[in-house]
Amino acid sequence: MRILVTGKNGQVDTALQVLGDQLGLEIIRIGRPEVDLAQTDTIEDAVRAARPDVIISSAAYTAVDKAEAEPELAQAINGDAAGELARLAKNLNIPILHLSTDYVFAGDKDGVYDENDAPAPVSVYGKTKLSGEQQIAAQTDNHVILRTAWVYSPYGNNFVKTMLRLGETRDALSVVADQHGCPTYAPEIARALLAIAQQVAIDLDPTIRGTFHLTGQGATTWAAFASAIFAGAVQRGRKDVQVNPITTAEYPTPASRPTNSRLNGDKLNAIYGLQLDPWEISLADCLDNLINVPIKDPS
Questions:
Q1: Which of 175, 200, 263, 274 is the most interior residue, by most CB within 10 Å?
Q2: Nearest CA to 212 among 232, 195, 225, 237?
C-alpha cells in the first residue's frame, strides 16, 4: 500500500514514516524543497508521480504567533494547499486524510468539544486550518478530517522537548495554568492515521468518513503537563525543576489561544474502535526515548 504524506521534518510525518516502515507500508513523504505547499502549482506533479492509494495531509503552517503577521502564507499552506490535495485526491479517486486542530474552536465552551460544535477560531492559525477543513469537504466526500491537539513526540520541536531543554539550565519555570487541553503523542496519531488509511482505502462506507476528534485520553493544563514532564525526568536521572503556574494574561502572545481545547474522541472510538492511550502513558514513552535512549530523527 502506497501512502503519500505531506511533510518531511514534522512530528507526525516522521512518526508515520517510522511506523509505516514497521508495518511494511510504503510511505512517500513530500515537502520542501521539491514541493512547496505555499505554491500549489508545485503539488500536482509530485502527487501524481507518487501514485498513492491514500493521501495523508499532515504538514501545516504551525507557527501560531507568527501567523498573525503572515496570514497569506498561513492561508496558502493550511487552507489552499489542503484544498488542492483534496482536488487531486478526487481526480485520482482515492481518499484523503487531513490533520486539523483544536484551534478551530473559540475555547469558551464549559465542557469538551465534539464534532457537532460550531467552529469559531480566534487566531489566524485557527482560521486558516478551518479553511483547510472547508476546502477539503467542498472538493471531495472521500475524506477523513481529524482534529488533534497539543502534539508532542521525540521528533521535531514541541512542548516536551522545550521543557527538557529549558530545564537543563533553569531551576524554575513559569507556565500557563489556565489553558486546558489533551496532550497527544505523534506516534499515537500515526497509529490511528495508518489504521484509518488502510480501512478507507478498501471500504466505501460513508459513515467512516467525515470529521473526527483524535487526542490522547485525559485533559490537563500546560503547567500540570510541565510538572509531569519534570517529574518523569527526575525518575530518569534529571534534576528537578519547579513549575510556577501563571495565567494567560501574565504571558501575552500575539495570537489568542483557546482556554478550553478539550476534544471528545467518542465518535472515533465508536466508528473505528480507535482510542489513543492516556497522555501520561504516552509521555512516559516519549521521555524514555528522549532521556534514557536518545534517538535521532530518521532521514
A1: 263
A2: 195
Global confidence as pTM: 0.94
CA 264/CA 19 separation, integer angstroms? 25
Task: Find out whether the peptide bond into 258 is cis, omega within 30 degrees of 0.
Answer: no
Point out the catalytic residue in the list 61, 103, 125, 155. Answer: 125
- Three state DSSP letters for the chain: CEEEEECCCCHHHHHHHHHHHHHCCEEEEECCCCCCCCCHHHHHHHHHHHCCCEEEECCCCCCHHHHCCCHHHHHHHHHHHHHHHHHHHHHHCCCEEEEEEHHHCCCCCCCCECCCCCCCCCCHHHHHHHHHHHHHHHHCCCEEEEEECCEECCCCCCHHHHHHHHHCCCCEEEEECCCEECCEEHHHHHHHHHHHHHHHCCCCCHHHCEEEECCCECCEEHHHHHHHHHHHHHHCCCCCCEEEEECHHHCCCCCCCCCECCECCHHHHHHHCCCCCEHHHHHHHHHHHHHHCCCCCCC
For the segment 194-219, the average pLDDT, to the nearest whole number, is: 97
Query: pLDDT value at position 272?
Result: 97
Per the CB < 8 A criterion, the answer to whether 38 and 32 are in contact is: no
| 113 in catalytic set | no
Instruction: Answer whether residue 173 shows pLDDT above 50.
Output: yes
Could you tell me the CA-to-CA distances from 48 to 80, 93, 97, 287 in Å, in that order?
18, 12, 17, 39
Pairing of strands 172-176, 242-246: parallel
Task: Kindly state the cell numbers that stand for 187.
Answer: 506516534
Superfamily designation of domain 2-157+182-217+261-276: NAD(P)-binding Rossmann-like Domain (3.40.50.720)
- Nearest to 52, CA basis, from 13, 14, 91, 82: 91
The pLDDT of residue 262 is above 60:
yes
